[in-house]
C-alpha cells in the first residue's frame, strides 16, 4: 500500500466519528502535523499512529499493515544505521548516510529528515570531540518536531518518538561533557522516569533502562556520589544480563572501569579492562580487535544510542 493510506484511514475514521483535527491531535501532536498525516505529506511514527487510533477509539489497527515496501526498507536502514553507530562500524554508517543524502528531497517527511540528521550528528561525534555546540545542535534537531520545549525544566510531555528520545539523551550527554553534571543528571532522570512509567511493555524497555542507568552512573561518579553511581551501574548491568546485548555490555563495562578508577580500585579497573579486551577479541578476532577496542575506549563518557 502507499504511505498515503495512513492518512486515508485517520481522516475517514475521524470524519465518521464527527471529531475535529484539534480534538484528535490534542496531547499527541500539533494540528498541523495531523493535517500533514491526513494529506499524505507526513508519515506518523508507530507510537504516534497508535495513540491517534486509540484517541479515535480504534486501537486494533496494525501499523505494519500500512507499510509500503519502501517504508519497510527505510525502517530497516534506520535500524541498521543505529546498530552501526553503536558498534563502531563507522564505514557502514557512512554508507547509509550517503544513501540517505542521495535519495533525500525537499518534500521529505520531517521526522525522516530529523532521524538522518541525528544519525549524521552521532557519526561526526565519532571523529570530532564534542564541544558546547553539541547540545545546541541536538535541541535544534529536536525543535523540528517540538517547537516549544525547555530541556532544563520539568517536562510535561512523555510521548516522545524514538528520534526525540535519542536527541534528549544526547543533549544530556552534552551537559555531561560540558561538566554540567546536575543538568545532565536531570535530563537522564526524567528520561528514566518516562521509561519506567510508559515503557515496561515495550521490547526496548530494558535497553533504554540500561543506557540511562549507565549515563546516570557517570554523572553521579563525576559528582563524587559513588554509592549512587554504583547503584545505577548495577541496575544497568542487571538489565543487560536479562536482555542481552554485547555492545551495550561493553559500553557499561567501560563505565564501570571509570568508576573503579575514580574509587581508587585499581585491580577492579584492570579486571574490567581485560574483560573488555577479551570480549572484543572473541567477537571480532585478533585482526580487528585492536581497532574495535580503541573505538570503545576512546569514546567520551556516557552512552549515546538507546
From TrEMBL:
Transmembrane segments: none annotated. This is Helix-turn-helix transcriptional regulator. It comes from Candidatus Pullilachnospira gallistercoris. Pfam families: HTH_3. Residues 10-62 form the HTH cro/C1-type domain. InterPro entries: Cro/C1-type_HTH (IPR001387), HTH-type_regulator_Rgg (IPR053163), Lambda_DNA-bd_dom_sf (IPR010982), TPR-like_helical_dom_sf (IPR011990). Signal peptide: none annotated. One of its GO terms (molecular function) is DNA binding. It comes from the Bacteria. PANTHER family: TRANSCRIPTIONAL REGULATOR-RELATED.
